[in-house]
Write a structure and sequence with these properties.
heterodimer, A: 364 residues, alpha/beta, ten-stranded mixed sheet, 20 strands, B: alpha/beta, Rossmann fold
Chain lengths: 364, 247
């Protein structure tokens, strides 16, 4: 890519709320080409995975440590054809204040992007990662396969937010696994607002260390004829582990969203809660909620609440009795339903995401 | 003046309201009594456009409300406080205030609104999702705040004193009475025990029984009658009238 193109693409990634041109440590990959690999904080390292593998011999031991390379054809394909991805290491004890940015973009026609991301939050470190995936042309048929392995070490705290902005013809297959050690904390937020051809993902977090915790939140807006099969799972394996899975799903048009969520209590002092809510806004759309609680230790404390349905008449009437018409009331309820406040996002990024939400709902 | 004439309403073949006629004069406050299931909430909900009547008419200020939507009725100056205000996820009390004041979301509160929020003891609720984990009294205070901000000429209040502690009731009533007096507003208040009458000047009481207005007179006398004789005797009340006016 020439400088002009690189500049244009970097600017495009900023529409996702990423501020790679400012003080943030950033990584941008277009297709399989690294456009930006910028480290602004001595407490961390951010590299293209291919460069990192050359730099660190030990890194190969982290590749496919959590994900089975033969899990499925997509994972195998990424194993055989590594086309980039980010390596982020937050160093021991480092407190990285400015959110780390990354963006994986596809612009070449018929391109199959195969990336592998390794994120290591070393002992006692704290960081916030904002990552966006997007494509340049809405109606091109792309494929994105993204493997991500997270290692949250003892006492480390990682807040990871991913926003997907694909197009009507794009097929997306993320494969994600995380492990959290003693006293560690992993917060993962997932936001999908725009149409996609189909996406299938089921990230799993293993809480392996005592007193570790995970909160997995997803806000999904199913539009067009998207087929979205998204899950989140937590295995509570050690003493006093705590987990929370929250999913909010809206379906419009002819979209289908399968919202899976699972918590598995395997330790007698573990505790977790699962919340699964769905709003169906059109007769041709479909929500299939699959909340699962699995207990295999006496004493584990698991709970869930699930509600799927249309907008409650009582809520509409309440807002209309405050002067809004039916459409405005619907919009307020939907906007509130997909409230980003539950995610604890950094302020500037939250404002951008909220703007995107407003745009989506203005177009409803 | 809000004028209801021969109003009937049925749901799935069951007659909930039968030929109800009642007139609310400007500046007057009415208490509506009746046993559970007598149709009190249905009457208010029908005036508000939430339910549609099967026959009869509702007119306010030279407008027939019969085919109007809830928001259109609200804009004419009629507001309703809900018996059970619903929770709305992701919508804060501050958001609701801006909706009531027809202001853009995110607009900061003006001093006058802030003062009312403080008087209703709702400062710490502004950023909270509306009615989520609110107690009964907190819901009613938040509802009253919204109603008063909309500056209605007619207030329809569905059990504002149920599930409310005495302190909250006093707070709500003080603001309500001040508003009614200053704005010459009228109100129709559904109440079971009539506690609200200790703090609000109520001009007239009426009883709804089996979907029909059975009598109207001094609200304190009604409370006395109900507590000594029970609702059933209202059917035989000497004040029985089929076409209740208020004069």
């Amino acid at each position: 890519m020439n400088d002009e193109e690189v500049k244009r693409i970097i600017e495009k990634t900023q529409t996702l709320g990423l501020n790679s041109d400012k003080d943030a440590s950033s990584y941008i990959l277009a297709n399989d080409e690294v456009l930006l690999e910028k480290n602004q904080d001595e407490g961390l390292e951010i590299l293209d995975i291919r460069n990192a593998l050359k730099k660190y011999d030990w890194l190969k031991d982290y590749m496919f440590k959590l994900i089975d390379a033969n899990k499925d054809e997509f994972t195998k394909s990424a194993y055989d054809n590594l086309g980039g991805g980010y390596f982020i290491r937050i160093k021991k004890g480092a407190k990285v204040n400015i959110p780390i940015n990354s963006c994986l973009l596809i612009s070449k026609k018929d391109f199959v992007q195969r990336v592998h991301n390794i994120i290591i939050a070393e002992e006692g470190s704290t960081a916030n990662i904002l990552t966006g995936c997007m494509q340049e042309h809405n109606m091109e048929p792309y494929t994105h396969i993204g493997l991500s392995e997270f290692f949250i070490e003892k006492g480390a705290s990682l807040n990871f937010t991913m926003i997907h902005n694909w197009g009507n013809m794009t097929k997306v297959r993320p494969r994600t696994k995380a492990v959290v050690k003693e006293g560690g904390s992993f917060v993962s937020n997932y936001i999908l607002l725009q149409p996609v051809k189909d996406i299938q993902a089921y990230p799993i977090v293993d809480l392996k260390g005592a007193d570790s915790k995970a909160v997995l939140t997803s806000l999904i807006n199913g539009t067009s004829d998207s087929l979205i099969d998204i899950g989140s799972g937590i295995n509570l394996l050690a003493d006093n582990t705590r987990g929370e899975v929250i999913s909010r799903v809206i379906t419009q048009d002819e979209s289908t969203v399968i919202s899976r969520s699972m918590i598995h209590g395997q330790n007698e002092t573990s505790k977790a809660h699962l919340e699964c809510r769905g709003l169906i806004l059109s007769n041709k759309s479909r929500i299939h909620a699959v909340p699962e609680l699995i207990a295999s230790a006496n004493g584990t404390d698991l709970s869930h609440e699930a509600a799927v349905g249309k907008i409650a008449d009582k809520e509409l009437q309440y807002l209309m009795a405050r002067g809004l018409d039916k459409d405005q009331s619907t919009s307020v309820i939907v906007r509130g339903f997909l409230d980003t406040n539950i995610m604890g996002l950094p302020t500037e990024f939250k404002e951008k995401v909220d703007e995107m939400m407003d745009l989506v709902h203005d177009g409803m | 003046m809000l004028e209801i004439k021969n109003l009937s309403m049925e749901i799935e073949g069951k007659h909930i309201l039968k030929d109800v006629s009642i007139t609310l004069e400007q500046g007057k406050v009415y208490a509506l009594f009746g046993p559970n299931g007598s149709g009190k909430s249905t009457l208010i909900n029908t005036i508000m456009g939430i339910y549609k009547q099967s026959s009869g008419s509702i007119a306010y200020d030279n407008h027939y409300l019969d085919d109007k939507q809830i928001d259109q009725i609200t804009r004419l100056g009629i507001s309703m406080a809900f018996q059970h205000p619903p929770e709305i996820r992701g919508v804060t009390l501050h958001d609701m205030i801006n909706i009531c004041l027809k202001r853009k979301q995110g607009t900061a509160l003006d001093q006058k609104t802030k003062d009312l929020v403080t008087r209703l003891k709702l400062d710490s609720f502004l950023k909270r999702e509306i009615n989520v984990d609110f107690s009964g009294g907190e819901r009613k205070r938040a509802d009253m705040l919204q109603i008063l901000l909309m500056k209605p000429k007619v207030l329809l209040l569905d059990e504002p004193d149920s599930g409310v502690d005495i302190e909250s009731l006093k707070t709500i009533c003080k603001e309500l009475q001040d508003y009614i007096t200053k704005n010459n507003a009228s109100a129709l208040i559904i109440t079971h025990q009539g506690y609200i009458m200790d703090y609000i000047k109520v001009d007239l009481g009426c009883v709804l029984f089996n979907g029909s207005i059975r009598c109207y007179k001094d609200p304190r006398e009604i409370i006395k009658d109900i507590s000594t004789k029970g609702y059933a005797e209202c059917v035989d009340c000497p004040n029985l009238t089929k076409d209740v006016g208020t004069k």
